């Protein structure tokens, strides 16, 4: 009978495992079994064949020390010998072994787990018999402010230990009997919605709640326990906080206490959030701390939210807000605007032109003195000078404007401006801001010549077109290369276009060149006015007088050097040639050329002379010392009559010949002439009476000389006149008055002839003429004696004259009536 229900009661679980590793045997035993003992639990899976040995049970012997388990050796059943208490021991771990008598294991050890199955034999217990809790006004309904704790000894997880909490009663039941809500499973006590409203209105006194805890879950049966909760309602201390002002960079030990919050309700945990996240913290007592230095510039304000939470992290009420204002400290110097490219200001900009407007930034609190910046000009030296300042600075706005002092083009100026906060007060932080300013050039300078007058430049007429006349230089005070470009032009003085200009765009040099031929006759001088202008449009006043330059050009007349008709001249003369004989005539090659002046350069013997104008070369004297066969060379120089520096020369070679035999002198029938004595300034022109005009006018002249008779040479003098005539005068002061036959040798080339010039020498009258005609004599003597002498003399002369006249009347009667000195005697050979 027993094994039958035992099989029903026990649920032996045999796990089919390989025999090498025997599966654990699991057996459950009901707690507090009230039946008979021993209680058969399960048949052990011993080997089927009978083996000699005995079964040994070992393992967990239980709390009591003596194992409640045994094995029936007969049946091989596991037995429990007494009632088990799960709360005492819930499980037993056993091993079954079949051993021989000498302790050798024949089977096993086989594990057996015995589980004591729970019975609801334990009563739940509150952790405290009485709970005291403070409930702050303002606690939100539904937020637990007390968590009840209760325990049950029965097996956890089973209904035997499944506890439920209930409010059994509330005292006082005013203003509402169910002001509180107890969450059954958690035991979380919170205000009910009704309680929320009531709590605010009536300052309710303390409440007492009787609460129950019961096991077996929601089943009606079960064990239960009760406890009381004393709730004292306290005034809320969760009050809004004044904003906190905290200085930045505060030098204090950190964390630094800044404020405190307090939730008057019990079991509070404070949490804090910072918006934006900041270095703030709250401790368990609700003390608020700042954990490190604050930086106003990084964050000027924080909003802290402090939460009062229960142990489950639920807010009892709205978070408390705390404004933290970081107070500014003047810890930031003004920051200059970044360096930009230089500010370009055109030259000649009027005073007041804004150069730049500085705006330094100050990170300190805006609107506070800490960020109130004023400006001060450091450089250029703002000291007021006589002519004013170059720059003006408005201290408030930072606007830099041009002052009265003009700035030069090309200047690069570094403006240095001090920016000071605290409105420039003592202790203000300062920064030096720099602004580069470049003065841009404008075309305000007209180009000018460095010299206003050039020359006079002398140019020969024959210079080639293209010849450089003068180089003019101009300068431009502007800086910009484009403004320095110049244009040149001839303004006046060149209507004919004789000159031209030649320049390179950016050189500043201009060359005045000849464009056409010069002509002295057309214009012996030129005054060329060259003007220079800026290519770009000029700003400001127009060009001054320096924009023109005058070049004076003088044209030099060019006279060709004289040229003779031969390069050298030769003449052959007999050594006996008389003085004054024409040898030859040196002539210019072009008869129309300018007049020349001839001279002999090295006539060392003095034999020759040359006519300065005509170029006729004569023998100056008889060629004493010249030997036939010799050659005498002299240099003839011909100079331009107006320009003596222009000259040429040629050699003149005289070949001396043997003197030809003097031909028989032929007394040519030459009419006699009259000369009076003592000697007067009269003479007789002797000529070569030739019928051939070519001979007389030819280039080779005739020369005249007196015959060799010494008396003749003493009494007479013969001077050559030209190539065909000579002049015969008395050589002595007194020559006997009578008829003289003067022999004159005429030579032409190698030919010689002799003339006999018949001269009647008479006494001179007071007029210096021959007293030939008695009738013409003016009566002079008054005395009879004188008259007698005169008559006698006149009778003698008259008689003498009659003799001559009658002799000559046959030859040439008419000549007697002609003037004695004016008519040349013609002689026929
Ligand atoms: C609790 O009471 C306050 C003030 O009377 C009210 O503003 C709030 O809405 C109430 N809460 C609930 C959940 O009724
Ligand atoms: C300029 O002079 C040169 C010689 O001096 C001559 O050959 C040329 O023809 C002249 N030109 C003019 C345009 O008269
Ligand atoms: C004169 O000068 C020329 C050239 O120099 C020379 O040949 C000649 O012999 C000179 N005559 C005399 C007389 O010195
Ligand atoms: C030479 O002089 C005479 C007298 O003066 C003159 O009549 C004659 O024409 C002249 N002959 C020459 C070639 O000059």
TrEMBL record:
Question: What SMART domains is this protein classified in?
Answer: CA
Q: Which InterPro entries match?
A: Cadherin (IPR039808), Cadherin-like_dom (IPR002126), Cadherin-like_sf (IPR015919), Cadherin_CS (IPR020894)
Where in the cell? Membrane
PROSITE patterns, per this entry? CADHERIN_1, CADHERIN_2
At the top level, the lineage of the source is: Eukaryota
Q: Which organism is it from?
A: Galeopterus variegatus (Malayan flying lemur)
Q: What is this protein called?
A: Cadherin-16
Task: Provide the alphabetized UniProt keywords.
Answer: Calcium, Membrane, Repeat, Signal, Transmembrane, Transmembrane helix
> Its gene?
CDH16
- Major subcellular location class: membrane
Signal peptide stretch:
1-16
Q: Which PANTHER family match?
A: CADHERIN-16 ISOFORM X3, CADHERIN-23
Transmembrane segments annotated in the record for this chain? 786-810
What are the residue boundaries of the Cadherin domain, all occurrences included? 69-126, 127-336, 337-449, 451-564, 565-671
């Amino acid at each position: 009978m027993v094994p039958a229900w035992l099989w029903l009661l026990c649920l032996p679980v045999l796990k089919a495992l390989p025999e090498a590793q025997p599966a654990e045997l699991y057996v459950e035993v009901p707690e507090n079994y009230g039946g008979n003992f021993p209680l058969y639990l399960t048949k052990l899976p011993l080997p089927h064949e009978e083996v000699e040995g005995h079964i040994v049970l070992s393992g967990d012997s239980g709390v009591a020390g003596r194992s409640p388990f045994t094995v029936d050796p007969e049946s091989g059943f596991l037995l429990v010998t007494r009632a088990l208490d799960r709360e005492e021991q819930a499980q037993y771990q056993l091993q079954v072994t079949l051993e021989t008598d000498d302790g050798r294991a024949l089977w096993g050890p086989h594990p057996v787990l015995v589980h004591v199955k729970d019975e609801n034999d334990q009563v739940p217990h509150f952790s405290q018999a009485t709970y005291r809790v403070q409930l702050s006004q303002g606690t939100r309904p539904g937020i637990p402010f007390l968590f009840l704790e209760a325990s049950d000894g029965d097996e956890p997880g089973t209904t035997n230990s499944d506890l439920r909490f209930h409010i059994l009663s509330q005292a006082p039941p005013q203003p509402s009997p169910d002001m509180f809500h107890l969450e059954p499973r958690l035991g979380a006590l919170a205000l009910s919605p009704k309680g929320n409203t009531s709590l605010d209105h009536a300052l309710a006194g303390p409440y007492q709640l009787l609460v129950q805890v019961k096991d077996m879950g929601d089943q009606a049966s079960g064990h239960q326990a009760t406890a009381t909760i004393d709730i004292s309602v306290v005034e809320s201390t969760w009050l809004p906080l004044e904003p906190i002002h905290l200085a930045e960079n505060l030098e204090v030990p950190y964390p630094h206490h800044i404020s405190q919050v307090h939730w008057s309700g019990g079991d509070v945990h404070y949490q804090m959030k910072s918006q934006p996240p900041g270095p703030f913290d709250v401790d368990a007592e609700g003390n608020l701390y700042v954990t490190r230095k604050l930086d106003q510039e990084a964050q000027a304000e924080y909003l802290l939210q402090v939460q009062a939470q229960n142990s489950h992290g639920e807010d009892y009420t709205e978070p408390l807000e705390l404004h933290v204002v970081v107070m500014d400290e003047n810890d930031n110097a003004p920051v200059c605007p970044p360096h930009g490219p230089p500010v370009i200001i055109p030259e000649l900009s009027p005073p007041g032109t804004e150069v730049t407007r500085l705006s330094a930034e100050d990170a300190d609190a805006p609107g506070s003195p800490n960020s109130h910046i004023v400006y001060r000009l450091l450089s250029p030296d703002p000291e007021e000078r006589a002519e004013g300042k170059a720059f003006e600075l408005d201290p408030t706005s930072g606007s830099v404007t041009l002052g009265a002092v003009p700035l030069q083009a090309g200047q690069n100026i570094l403006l240095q401006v001090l920016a000071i906060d605290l409105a420039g007060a003592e202790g203000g932080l300062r920064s030096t801001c720099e602004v580069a300013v470049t003065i841009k050039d404008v075309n305000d300078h007209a180009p000018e010549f460095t010299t206003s007058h050039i020359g006079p430049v002398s140019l020969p007429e024959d210079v080639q077109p293209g010849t450089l006349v003068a180089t003019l230089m101009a300068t431009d005070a502007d800086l910009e290369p484009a403004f320095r470009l110049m244009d040149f032009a001839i303004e006046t003085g060149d209507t004919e276009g004789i000159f031209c200009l030649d320049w390179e765009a950016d050189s500043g040099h201009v060359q005045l060149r000849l464009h056409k031929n010069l002509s002295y006759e057309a214009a012996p001088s030129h005054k060329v006015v060259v003007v220079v202008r800026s290519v770009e449009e000029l700003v400001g006043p127009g060009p001054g007088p320096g924009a023109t330059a005058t070049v004076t050009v003088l044209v030099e007349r060019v006279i060709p050097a004289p040229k003779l008709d031969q390069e050298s001249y030769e003449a052959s003369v007999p050594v006996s040639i008389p003085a004054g004989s024409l040898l030859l005539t040196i002539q210019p090659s072009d008869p129309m050329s300018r007049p020349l002046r001839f001279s002999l350069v090295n006539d060392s013997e003095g034999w020759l002379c040359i006519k300065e104008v005509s170029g006729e070369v004569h023998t100056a004297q008889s060629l004493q010392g010249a030997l036939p066969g010799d050659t005498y060379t002299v240099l003839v120089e011909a100079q331009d009559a107006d320009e003596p520096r222009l000259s040429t020369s040629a050699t003149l070679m005289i070949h001396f010949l043997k003197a030809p035999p003097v031909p028989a002198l032929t007394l040519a029938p030459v009419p006699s002439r009259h000369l009076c004595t003592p000697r007067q300034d009269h003479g007789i022109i002797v000529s070569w009476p030739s019928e051939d005009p070519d001979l007389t006018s030819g280039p080779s002249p005739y020369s005249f000389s007196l015959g060799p008779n010494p008396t003749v040479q003493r009494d007479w003098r013969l001077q050559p006149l030209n190539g065909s005539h000579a002049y015969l005068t008395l050589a002595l002061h007194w020559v006997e008055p009578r008829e003289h036959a003067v022999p004159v040798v005429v030579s032409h080339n190698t030919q010689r002839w002799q003339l006999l010039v018949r001269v009647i020498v008479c006494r001179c009258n007071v007029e210096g003429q021959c007293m030939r005609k008695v009738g013409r004599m003016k009566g002079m003597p008054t005395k009879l004696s004188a008259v007698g002498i005169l008559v006698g003399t006149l009778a003698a002369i008259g008689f003498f004259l009659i003799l001559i006249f009658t002799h000559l009347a046959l030859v040439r009667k008419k000549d007697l009536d002609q003037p004695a000195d004016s008519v040349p005697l013609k002689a026929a050979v």
